[in-house]
Amino acid sequence: MSPLYGRCQTYAICSMQNNKSTTYFKIAIGLLFAWYFLSSAFSTGEWHFIDNVDLIIHEAGHWIFIFFGRFISILGGSLTQVAIPVMFALYFLIKKDFYSVSILTMWVGYNIVNVSIYMADSIKMALPLLGGESSIHDWNYIFSALHILNQTNAIASTVNALGVFVIIAGAVFALRICFLELSGAKKSTSPKPIDFE
Questions:
Q1: How far is residue 42 CA from its own chain's centroid?
Q2: 3-state DSSP call for residue 45?
Q3: Which distant-in-sequence residues (6+ apart) come within 8 Å of 65 by Cβ?
């Protein structure tokens, strides 16, 4: 066996070991994100770090859609809040970075849950709003305009369940990707001889 082949074989084995370590790290990160988004989704009375990001996106959404009329502008806050992580997920999907897609899917799910909480408050209007009492409650306005305010609880519960499902789906997708990577690494533990001719 030539010294060059020996070095290549050693490099290949080390590379696969590094990839395996990276995959285990990705599993840990995926589980951490799943725990964070699910725990945040179920602790509805608390403010979380991700809510600061979502609030900025939500408020920006109102301005983005301001030229499309009052109804669309008000709807635009929640719409943009969900659409932004979806757009990032689509970007990574095009790049075929499926692991990033799975993490972003969990963020999408959390934002759907977040919107459902805002929906559920459309009758009581107890949530503090940016701008104080003079601010319009988005979903009170939307449901009232659509004459479905009396269906608030059913709609909010359905949207909430959808959000939780999307978070779980993203977590399962992340773990599935990692396990496939580990499975592929096991099949490649014996590097084939390299023909240098």
A1: 16
A2: coil
A3: 72, 73, 75, 76, 79, 80
Residue 197: helix, strand or coil by DSSP?
Answer: coil
Amino acid (1-letter code) at residue 56: I
Grouping H, G, I as helix, E, B as strand and the rest as coil, residue 44 is coil
What are the pLDDT digits (tens) for 1-37?
Answer: 555 344 434 433 343 455 788 889 999 999 999 999 9
Q: Report pTM.
A: 0.82
Distance CA 19, CA 50 (A): 30
Residue 192 DSSP symbol: P
Side chain identity, residue 105 = T
Rounded-to-integer distance, Cα 148 and Cα 155, Å: 9
DSSP letter assigned to residue 132: G
Number of other CB atoms surrounding residue 155 within 10 Å: 17
Q: Can you give the length of the chain in residues?
A: 197
DSSP state of 113: H
Q: Cα 161–166–171 angle (5° rounding)?
A: 130
What three-state secondary structure class fits 105?
helix
